[in-house]
Amino acid sequence: MMPMSQAILMETFPPEEQAVAMSVWGLGMMLGPVMGPIVGGWITDNYSWRWIFYINVPVGALAFLMVTIFVHDPAYIRRGIRKIDWWGLGYLAVGIGALQVMLDKGERLDWFDSNLIIALGATGGAGLLLFAIQELRTREPIVNLRVLKNRTFAVGTVFTTTVMFGMYGTYILIPLFCQQVTGYTPLLAGMVLSIQSFGTFLSIMLAGRLFNKFDPRLMVAIGCVIAGIGSLAMANFYVRISFSNIAIPGILRGIGSGLIFIPMTTLSLGAVRKEDMGTASGLFNMVRTIGGSIGIAVLVAMLSSRAQIHQSYLTAHVDPFRLGAWRNSIPGAAGAMMNFTRHGSAPLLGMVYQEVQRQASVMAFVDDFRVIAYLFFILSPLSFVMRRPKSAASAPAAH
Fold it and tell me: 381 near 155, Cβ under 8 Å?
């Protein structure tokens, strides 16, 4: 749905209006991140998590009806496809399917210590390799990989994929932090995540207006810096952090994401021919989603391993003979100290260990947030590798 909707916009609007059209499209996409976590948290708290899927049925039916009535194919698509590349489609399904399952189960199965993960990795790699070979050989590929010869589109695709590594990671890490560390309910954790979208709302409106007036590559670079600052601010999170101190860095990340995606998407897709728009948009979104999936898998794996490392370090520095120093830092520790002499140190040691686990978890989250911040800072100057549009009105220029 995402690539086709983008392709329809790029085909429908003239070059000078494409950025504004993508901004309006982005505002619609923004409503999901704003409403989804809040509504999903409320449904989970009051009903069942299964209902977050059931509510898609009437929405999907309405969307089907509206698309059938209002959306029409351009002439070059109505000519029809003479032959479907079933081999390419099969290789793609096997490759992406195996890769996705590997990323989903890797953490639970200890990654490449598991024979299943090794088999899935080999299957996914082979499937994608055969897919690339097939698409470059056939006359009517299901995904025209030759569109990657366009430097602007190729760089934009790789750039956006890398950005999604960090963006998708924060969508997972923030709710985990709120519920596992600070003890928020699903609804409150959803509200924290949704606040980020207000920053996105502002930056999307700004990016659409400024695209034809300023170098869009500069907007992307500035967006990366702002998103990096917001991610670096999350490296200051602590156990008893307030709601506002969690939410404010999210607003910065939201501003950065809007300044990145609207100019980057418009630049990348505007550089290809209309006949290749469907393929380009599909490829653009496919690898972007893969980048997000890889980001989630890598960051969650880092979270687990770093928590173990920090816990080992903190445990080694706990002095049993100085447990009284923990009285004022651990809730309930003062009461436990009253029974210290009668019942031994076991109750207090248990509370100390729980606090060590929690602090180790916070330190692991901070490590992940720093990685995301550094990634955005590194990406910032790389946006200028893309070709600058010849003029504001000829952004979808050439190759």
Answer: no
CA distance 62 to 56: 10
Contact of 160 with 264, CB cutoff 8 Å: yes
Q: Is residue 203 part of a domain?
A: yes
Q: How many structural domains comprise the chain? A: 1
Measured CA to CA, the distance from residue 237 to residue 231 in angstroms comes to 11
Q: What is the length of the chain?
A: 399
Q: Quick check: helix, strand or coil at residue 108?
A: coil
- Note the pLDDT tens digit of each residue in 319-329: 665 555 545 55
From 34-38, 42-46, 318-322, the region with the lowest mean pLDDT: 318-322
Residue 235 — very low, low, confident or very high, per pLDDT cuts 50/70/90?
Answer: confident
pLDDT of residue 279: 75
**CA 304/CA 306 separation, integer angstroms:** 6
Least reliable range by pLDDT among 64-73, 97-106, 186-195, 322-331: 322-331
CATH no. for residue 261?
Answer: 1.20.1250.20
Tell me which range, 81-95, 197-211, 279-293, 363-377, is most confidently predicted by mean pLDDT.
Answer: 363-377
Does residue 389 belong to any structural domain of this protein? yes
Place of tokens 């009105």: 393
Neighbours of 65 (CB within 10 A): 10
Hey, what are 89's tokens? 């489609």
Range of the domain at 212: 2-84+142-311+356-394
Q: Tell me, yes or no, whether 12 lies in a domain.
A: yes
Taken in order 99, 105, 110, 114, is the CA torsion positive or negative?
Answer: negative
> CA geometry: angle at 119 spanning 118 and 121, to 5°?
65
Give the pLDDT of residue 334. 45
What single string gives the DSSP state of each residue in 274-295? GGGHHHHHHHHHHHHHHHHHHH
